[in-house]
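Lecture notes, part 5. Sequence design as translation. It can be helpful to think of inverse folding as translation between two languages: the language of shapes and the language of residues. The source text, in structure tokens, appears below.
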């Protein structure tokens, strides 16, 4: 059975358009890696009032995008995005896991 994962990240104010542009041009090799990992649905929503990003994934298997930080492509993507997001010292986005409190299926 697929699992669901949700987490929150934060943009630096003023970079909403740039964030969307970079994701429209997401690297094909990153998309391939995500799909090969078993991520069958990955959506990111923006709250423009707070610059908060809400990410949601449906995953087949045990891994998710949060487990890919040791890969070269993800490390390059983090570096590519670090100037417009709140990040940790390793350039990974600061993210907060969000527990599922309701699921209408």
């Amino acid at each position: 059975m697929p699992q669901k994962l949700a987490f929150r990240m934060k943009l630096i104010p003023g970079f909403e358009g740039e964030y969307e542009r970079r994701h429209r041009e997401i690297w094909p090799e990153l998309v391939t890696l995500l799909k090969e990992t078993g991520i069958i649905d990955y959506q990111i929503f923006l709250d423009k009032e707070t610059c908060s990003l809400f990410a949601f994934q449906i995953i087949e298997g045990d891994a998710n995008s949060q487990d890919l930080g040791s890969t070269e492509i993800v490390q390059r993507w983090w570096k590519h995005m670090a100037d417009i997001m709140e990040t940790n010292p390793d350039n990974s986005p600061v993210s907060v896991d969000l527990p599922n409190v309701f699921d209408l299926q």
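The translated text above is only one of many valid answers, since several sequences can fold into similar shapes. The two ends are 14 Å apart (CA to CA).
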